[in-house]
Automatic annotation (TrEMBL):
<dbReference type="InterPro" id="IPR001509">
    <property type="entry name" value="Epimerase_deHydtase"/>
</dbReference>
<dbReference type="Pfam" id="PF01370">
    <property type="entry name" value="Epimerase"/>
</dbReference>
<protein>
    <submittedName>
        <fullName>NAD-dependent epimerase/dehydratase family protein</fullName>
    </submittedName>
</protein>
<feature type="domain" description="NAD-dependent epimerase/dehydratase">
    <location>
        <begin position="4"/>
        <end position="211"/>
    </location>
</feature>
<dbReference type="InterPro" id="IPR050177">
    <property type="entry name" value="Lipid_A_modif_metabolic_enz"/>
</dbReference>
<dbReference type="InterPro" id="IPR036291">
    <property type="entry name" value="NAD(P)-bd_dom_sf"/>
</dbReference>
Length: 310
């Protein structure tokens, strides 16, 4: 069974390739400059912003996984996400390939983030969330029309694997503590905040893609049910790193003000609803259906730090 990963060079794509080896030796990694994860991987160096290249990547595939990540900038997302996913969906339909979309939860906003399940309503409160809702609706409408077999596999913010450059908690907590600096947290350290562990998220995505009964549904990927506050996350990383859990809190107004001068802060400002209230990602559906026990937060942090230390 041919399994194709679109956007295979990121932390999730590479972790997914490793997990898919349990199901197939016919795996194709697609990105601008793909690198082998498994000895038998096939490499397809393609610019996926081009429709013809998406078509080329999907042709002959049984299952197509989308783990691509566009630069974290609203203008880039507006320009790229919907056209890209339209090309992917249309190609999957033409070639009778199943689609597994590794998604985030940006389409769910406001107080709905206090308990995120597969039934949480679309309620975006950010520009990025509006874009992700359009992508999700495109997939769901294609499923409802009977044209496409697909899965929307949702993940919260994450860490682990090779995710340092794309993980907020790695940059603002782990990396800063390792450098002897105080950790940083947004809005409030006393609100709950779920984080996924990349190896578990990848394993869950591989399980879903290779389970026929999982299709045409939304799934929250496996995440430890013990949700920690920002303060507890900082204390956990500090404990594993063997340092003091020093931290500073960046209030909402300061993030917005910094956005006038620092581009990434401008992009983060609209996402503050994920930090100024509890943010709980519930993967009970997955854990129960597959009898899956997610890696505990403590063990995930230990493994992450061990990998960083080589």
């Amino acid at each position: 069974m041919k399994q194709v990963i679109l956007g295979a060079n990121g932390s999730v794509g590479r972790a997914l390739a490793k997990e898919l080896a349990e199901y197939s030796t016919d795996i194709t990694l697609v990105s601008r400059n793909p690198q082998k994860v498994n000895q038998t991987d096939q490499l397809a160096p393609l610019d996926l912003s081009l429709k013809a290249n998406v078509e080329k990547a999907v042709e002959g595939a049984d299952i197509v996984y989308v783990t691509i990540g566009f630069p974290y900038k609203t203008s880039v997302w507006k320009e790229n996400w919907l056209p890209f996913m339209t090309n992917v969906v249309e190609s999957c339909i033409r070639h009778n390939a199943k689609l597994v979309f590794f998604d985030n939860v940006y389409a769910i906003g406001g107080d709905n983030v206090k308990h995120i399940t597969e039934l949480s309503p679309f309620s975006p409160t950010s520009q990025k969330g509006v874009i992700r809702e359009k992508v999700d609706q495109l997939i769901l409408k294609s499923i409802d029309g009977g044209k496409l077999k697909a899965i929307i596999a949702r993940a919260p913010d994450f860490f682990g694997g090779i995710s340092s450059e794309s993980s907020i908690i790695m940059q603002t907590v782990c990396d800063r503590l390792r450098q002897g600096k105080p950790a940083q947290w947004f809005c409030s350290v006393d609100k709950l905040h779920s984080y996924g562990y990349v190896p578990d998220l990848a394993k869950g995505t591989a399980i879903l893609g290779n389970t026929e009964s999982a299709y045409n549904q939304i799934w929250n990927l496996p995440t430890d049910t013990q949700t920690l506050t920002g303060r507890q996350w900082i204390e956990l990383f500090a404990k594993v790193l063997g340092c003091e859990p020093r931290f500073s809190v960046i209030p909402n107004w300061q993030i917005r003000a910094a956005g006038l001068f620092i581009p990434i802060m401008k992009e983060l400002a609209e996402m503050n609803y994920q930090y100024d209230r509890d943010y709980f990602f519930d993967s009970t559906k997955f854990n129960t259906y597959f009898s899956f026990q997610p890696t505990t937060n403590e063990q995930a942090v230990k493994q992450t730090v061990e990998q960083l230390n080589g």
